[in-house]
Design brief:
37% of the residues lie in helices and 13% in strands. The chain is of the alpha/beta class. The chain folds into 3 domains: 214 residues, Rossmann fold; 226 residues, Rossmann fold; 47 residues, no CATH class. The strands form 3 sheets. The protein has a 6-stranded mixed sheet, sandwiched between helices. The chain is globular, with a radius of gyration of 25 Å.
């Protein structure tokens, strides 16, 4: 859609003019730092940052109604730099000029309403936000588009060169980091650290395919994270984990898209998502707060974070009495929600800060954390995919969390829920295969239900000697017809099909 086709009152806003005044602000000591350097933790106290726009109040001078029109019309514009997360440029990264934006097709993933069977089964209307349809097949691309756009901005300005981007990962972060870094070759190269034998083959293939240096560390994700943290403190590298505050900014767009898809009506809505390293729940809270403060939305939805019993430090924290709360990392156990198998989330300080702020603005508790079993995660993933979705095991975790939230009265059947499927189901197909073949290791604690197991059926036909060379054409044709007839009859019998009545 060409600019002259937009309404006159919208045209001045289609291309962003707000430059912002973004800074790093420490969550602990409050000290602020400029964006000229790559920073991840406060040099004064070691705490994590959030990025703030000192000129954010300027955005409040535009009415919420006008912002809604800007975003809706901007979505129709043919401007590549505004097609992804930077559709919401003023809220995400006003410091980043459009020519530095790295866009690989991320964001604006589909919001799919659950079919009637699932909605009747749960007794609630709900939708699945399928972030597996991002370029690297996970929600991580939102944050990487932001982080790599910032690095590209520094490269273009001559502030940095020959960047080595590093990250620890349970799989999805490494895939996304390697993809976005490879787009900026030769200026950016990437190295990823993965827990040995704890990443699916599909996820391992992605960074290898994008040319990253891949290092496998004996242990779990938390061990890999300690190594990359040490590297970022001692060497000149760009850290791409969610400790990087730019990652959080990009992931805020998950909230903005949900609001836009519901025509900015967030009354009686509840967003359910897995916690993992806690970057996503941080971003979702922050994004909705920004839209609320500028009048883009009139209500804050409920936020429900979900953790498995095998990796539940955030649930344990909020299960304690508020006056006695102390965050204690846990040693994780094997989980089918492998991407969320994190015992010491990097963004936990951000969660504590933003959950308190979110509840305060809401006028009461509006952020909740629930715990689910491994059995429920696996079963709900299988059930979701049998009903038209492309849910990963973390999507199963979200759906299991919605069920628990209903049981505890956190979400009622008068509300509309949005659950997060963070990655493409094919990334975690190995867990489905283990379930179908009844081969889960005992430490997962998974039992099997026959009605959820599926397997291919070999169609038995007559044996052949494969001696087609000596056969005449008529003999080969007869053999082929017998094969067709036997196969069709066997399949029809297996499906209990009745022959058509002859006219």
């Amino acid at each position: 859609m060409e600019l002259e086709e937009f309404p006159k009152e919208i045209r001045p806003y289609i291309f962003p003019k707000h430059k912002g005044n973004q800074i790093y602000r420490c969550l602990a000591c409050g000290r602020e730092y400029g964006l000229e350097k790559l920073l991840y933790t406060c040099p004064s106290c070691g705490q994590v940052f959030l990025i703030y726009d000192r000129d954010f109040d300027q955005l409040k001078k535009i009415s919420g109604a006008l912002w809604r029109k800007i975003f809706d019309y901007r979505k129709m514009a043919s401007i590549p730099a505004l097609k992804g997360i930077y559709l919401y440029h003023e809220f995400v990264g006003p410091t980043i000029p459009p020519d530095a934006v790295v866009y690989l097709g991320e964001a604006h993933t589909p919001l799919i309403e659950a079919n009637s069977f699932l909605q009747k089964k749960l007794g609630i209307r709900f939708f699945v936000k399928n972030d597996g349809q991002n370029p690297s097949a996970s929600f991580k691309d939102r944050g990487m588009a932001s982080a790599l756009s910032y690095i590209n901005y520094l490269i273009k300005g001559g502030a940095v060169s020959d960047i080595l981007a590093v990250c620890a990962s349970t799989g999805d972060t490494s895939a996304s980091a390697a993809l976005y870094a490879s787009y900026l070759q030769p200026h950016v190269k990437s190295a990823v650290l993965l827990p040995y034998k704890k990443v699916t083959p599909q996820q391992l293939s992605q960074p290898l395919g994008n040319g990253a240096k891949v290092f496998e560390i004996p242990g779990v994700f938390d061990d890999c994270m300690k190594v990359v943290e040490a590297m970022s403190e001692r060497y000149n590298v760009a850290l791409l984990n969610s400790k990087n505050a730019w990652r959080i900014l990009g992931q805020e767009t998950y909230s903005y898209e949900i609001a836009q898809d519901f025509e900015y009506d967030m009354v009686n809505k509840a967003v359910v998502l897995p916690i993992g390293n806690a970057g996503n729940i941080t971003a979702v809270m922050s994004g909705f707060i920004k839209f609320y403060e500028t009048g883009v939305i009139d209500a804050l939805p409920k936020i429900v974070g979900v953790q498995s019993q095998h990796a539940n430090p955030v649930f344990r924290y909020y299960a304690s009495e508020s006056k006695r709360r102390e965050f204690i990392p846990v040693t994780v156990k094997p989980s089918v929600a492998q991407a969320a198998m994190i015992g010491n989330p990097v963004s936990m300080p951000r969660v504590i800060y933003l959950a308190e702020l979110y509840n305060q603005i809401s006028g009461g508790q509006n952020v909740f954390v629930v715990e689910v079993t491994e059995q429920a995660i696996m079963e709900w993933e299988l059930i979701a995919n049998r009903n038209g979705h492309i849910a990963c095991t973390q999507g199963g975790e979200s759906l299991a969390g919605l069920v628990v939230a209903q049981e505890h009265g956190i979400i009622n059947n008068n509300e509309i829920a949005i659950i997060d499927s963070t990655a493409h189901a094919l990334k975690f197909s190995g867990f489905q295969e283990m379930y179908f073949e009844r081969k889960f290791p005992s430490e997962f604690g998974i039992s099997y239900k026959s009605d959820l197991i599926n397997a291919p059926v070999l169609v038995e036909t007559e044996n052949t000697d494969n001696n087609f060379i000596s056969e005449t054409f008529a003999q080969q044709e007869d053999r082929s017809q017998r094969f067709i007839d036997i196969s069709a009859r066997a399949i029809a019998n297996a499906l209990n099909l009745k022959p058509k009545e002859l006219l």
